[in-house]
């Protein structure tokens, strides 16, 4: 079911946690709210669920206006048909898995036969069909989180809100549950809003990612577009681009990295001009070699650190007399290996260099989000 958020604002006293948010989430769409700690992700979820009263704006789920500050509408959480799953395992330890999942159906006065059928259906969906009679306190973290998910799903919500549901789990389990969640979401055609600060998780789960900074959605796009074309250097950095350096325009459309004489060519379009421009390039796009020629995108440097990472080796390379250090990721199978102290050449293709404003102007932001 569609969710429309218009001019949403949430203030805690003088502090603005959500500032004039406008978003439309499509029916059956999976939107991931991504952003660093404190940017307003949970606040947004709580407003949709009805657990927090916004200061201004309107929220519509399907055709129902669930909140409208001006019209004085504010439906309570249980009238919104929204399911929520949180980071902490909110299961009742003294009940069995079956009882946990059946609880809300019982409260609604649904008959025993139907309860049995619906509970078994969702337990199968989340892979807990063999655990129905197990006490909920005798489950692993991953299993408890599946119970919490089953408990939301059994209510057949129009919208499912998930707030960092996997962050208490170990990395491997998180990877697996992430894929299962996406399968369930697609299978049931659920509209979901998922909160995380992990970009890998966002990429894996989202039809569209809404990237939040300081209570504002600064970019909203499908994961591939966001990865390839971040709207600002701060977004690029958040999405894992480790080389971000202030630049100044130089002759012939080139750039120099501020505070150095390193010349940089970028073959990508500079969409905005401004004072505060940064060159952004990914560590895996840099190449190291023993031989080279000085010029644009080809710099002499010294290896400071070399660290083995399994499938790759990460190098810190000083290219600017102690001022500019580059993060380079070389595949393990790379022809040459380098040791700390070695002199090297670092090169990068001009197509892999983006010059972006540190943070775009608000009107540019709005246009980017609306597009
Ligand atoms: N009840 C409250 N009173 C005052 N300020 C609050 C309250 N709840 C949240 N905030 C503030 O609002 C901002 C947004 O909080 P929110 O919980 O939405 O962040 P978040 O993006 O979910 O962060 P995290 O990733 O750490 O969970 C934070 O700066 C927080 O300190
Ligand atoms: Mg939060």
UniProtKB/TrEMBL annotation:
UniProt cross-references to InterPro entries, sorted A to Z: AAA+_ATPase, ABC_transporter-like_ATP-bd, ABC_transporter-like_CS, ABC_transpr_FbpC, ABC_transpr_MalK/UgpC-like, Mo/tungstate-bd_C_term_dom, P-loop_NTPase, Transp-assoc_OB_typ2
ABC transporter domain location: 3-239
GO molecular function per UniProt: ABC-type ferric iron transporter activity; ATP binding; ATP hydrolysis activity
Pfam families tied to this protein: ABC_tran, TOBE_2
Gene Ontology cellular component terms for the protein in this record: ATP-binding cassette (ABC) transporter complex, substrate-binding subunit-containing
Keyword annotations of the record: ATP-binding, Cell membrane, Membrane, Nucleotide-binding, Translocase, Transport
SUPFAM superfamilies: MOP-like, P-loop containing nucleoside triphosphate hydrolases
Source organism, top-level taxon: Bacteria
Alphabetized CDD domains for the sequence: ABC_Carb_Solutes_like
Matching Gene3D superfamilies: P-loop containing nucleotide triphosphate hydrolases (3.40.50.300)
Name of the featured protein: ABC transporter ATP-binding protein
Species this protein is from: Arthrobacter sunyaminii
Lineage of producing organism: Bacteria, Bacillati, Actinomycetota, Actinomycetes, Micrococcales
């Amino acid at each position: 079911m569609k969710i429309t958020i218009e001019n949403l604002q949430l203030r805690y006293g003088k502090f603005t946690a959500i500032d004039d948010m406008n978003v439309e989430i499509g029916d059956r769409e999976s939107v991931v709210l991504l952003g660093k700690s404190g940017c307003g992700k949970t606040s947004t979820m709580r407003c949709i669920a009805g657990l927090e009263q916004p200061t201004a704006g309107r929220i519509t789920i399907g055709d129902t206006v669930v909140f409208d500050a001006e019209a004085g509408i504010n439906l309570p959480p249980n009238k919104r048909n929204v399911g929520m799953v949180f980071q902490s395992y909110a299961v009742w330890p003294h009940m069995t898995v079956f009882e946990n999942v059946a609880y809300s159906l019982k409260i609604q006065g649904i008959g025993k036969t139907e309860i049995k059928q619906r509970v078994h259906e969702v337990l199968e969906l989340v892979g807990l069909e063999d655990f129905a009679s197990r006490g909920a306190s005798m489950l692993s973290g991953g299993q408890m989180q599946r119970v919490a998910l089953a408990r939301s799903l059994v209510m057949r919500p129009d919208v499912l809100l998930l707030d960092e549901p996997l962050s208490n789990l170990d990395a491997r389990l998180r990877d697996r549950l992430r894929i299962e969640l996406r399968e369930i979401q697609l299978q049931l055609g659920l509209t979901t809003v998922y909160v995380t600060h992990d970009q890998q998780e966002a990429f894996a789960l989202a039809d569209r990612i809404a990237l939040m900074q300081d209570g504002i959605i600064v970019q909203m796009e499908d994961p591939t577009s966001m990865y390839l074309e971040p709207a600002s250097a701060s977004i690029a950095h958040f999405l894992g681009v480790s080389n971000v350096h202030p630049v100044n325009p130089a002759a012939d459309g080139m750039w120099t990295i501020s505070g150095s004489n390193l010349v940089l060519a970028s073959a990508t379009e500079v969409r905005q001009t401004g004072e505060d421009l940064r060159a952004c390039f990914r560590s895996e796009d840099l190449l190291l070699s023993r031989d080279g020629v000085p010029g644009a995108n080809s710099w002499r440097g010294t290896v400071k650190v070399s660290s083995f990472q399994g499938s790759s080796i990460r190098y810190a390379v000083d290219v600017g007399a102690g001022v500019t250090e580059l993060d380079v990721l070389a595949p393990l199978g790379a022809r040459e290996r380098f040791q700390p102290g070695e002199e090297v050449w670092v090169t990068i293709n001009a197509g892999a260099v983006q010059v972006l404003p540190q943070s775009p102007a608000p009107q540019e932001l709005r246009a980017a989000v609306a597009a």
